[in-house]
Amino acid sequence: MIVKTVANAREALKGVSDSMTFMFGGFGLSGIPENAIAELVRLGVKDLTCISNNAGVDDFGLGLLLQQRQIRKMISSYVGENDEFERQMLSGELEVELTPQGTLAEKCRAAQAGIPAFYTPAGYGTEVAAGKETREYNGKMYVLEPAYEADFAFVKAWKGDEAGNLIFKGSARNFNPVMAGAAKVTVAEVEELLPAGALDPNQIHIPGIFVKRIFQGELYEKRIEQRTVRTRS
Predict the structure, then answer these.
(1) Cβ atoms of residues 161 and 196 within 8 Å
(2) Signal peptide: which range, if any (predicted)?
(3) What's the structural domain count of the chain?
């Protein structure tokens, strides 16, 4: 069995460089690859294209890369929680491609499955469809969307083993599964790294074939984006 374990984020991110395209799992701040993002900040790579459902918040998640002006283009479906993102977008510093959330997920899944493009009704008749091929099926119009092409995919799981098999927990099972294997290199960071074969095969969400490198992360903050609590009676 091939062992895919590396010692840490620094080793896992070998090969990243300027002007690459990266995928980042997570939804809001849930299930984001905190260690990989921190290492990208340390490396200082720039002119990046980042594919992520959202852009973190001002001082956490992808917001850290935005603070350092490392991102040239952001491909997302929702970006409403990041003031610095808004500032850079409105000033023209940051190129932004807004994509319907389901389309963004399917463009990742298509890349994962080796499908070059697919038709979807989402976005037809709007700016999303501008310049794209459209076609009618059974009286309904569809837009041809290409699968994403990325150099690295960074995902975060609850548990993993040395062979790269992954299990996600709760709402962290969001964009992480569709991004694993959707790039040339998939890097998985996990909260708990186990020996190969230690996971119940019936519980595995992503098989190791989709993962190139895996390491045990550390010091997870797991911030809550919008904490809402009930008033004590």
Answers:
(1) yes
(2) none
(3) 1
Residue range 78-104, pLDDT digits in tens: 887 788 988 999 999 999 999 999 999
Residue 106's CATH number: 3.40.1080.10
Tens-digit pLDDT profile for residues 111-165: 999 999 999 999 999 999 999 999 999 999 999 999 999 999 999 999 999 999 9
Token pair listed for 42: 């340390």
Q: How far is CA 43 from CA 31, 37, 78, 100, 178, in A?
A: 22, 10, 27, 31, 26
Q: In the prediction, which pLDDT does 183 show?
A: 98
What single letter denotes the amino acid at residue 84? E
Asked if residue 128 belongs to a domain, the reply is no
DSSP 183: S
Structural domain span for residue 15:
9-114+148-216
Q: Which residue from 144, 147, 175, 156 is spatially nearest to 39, judged by alpha carbons?
A: 156
Residues 6+ apart with CB under 8 A from 20: 45, 48, 49, 151, 152
* Number of other residues whose CB lies within 10 A of the CB of residue 1: 10
Closest listed residue to residue 20, CA positions, set 156, 149, 177, 172: 149
Structural contact between residues 21 and 51, judged by C-beta atoms closer than 8 angstroms = yes
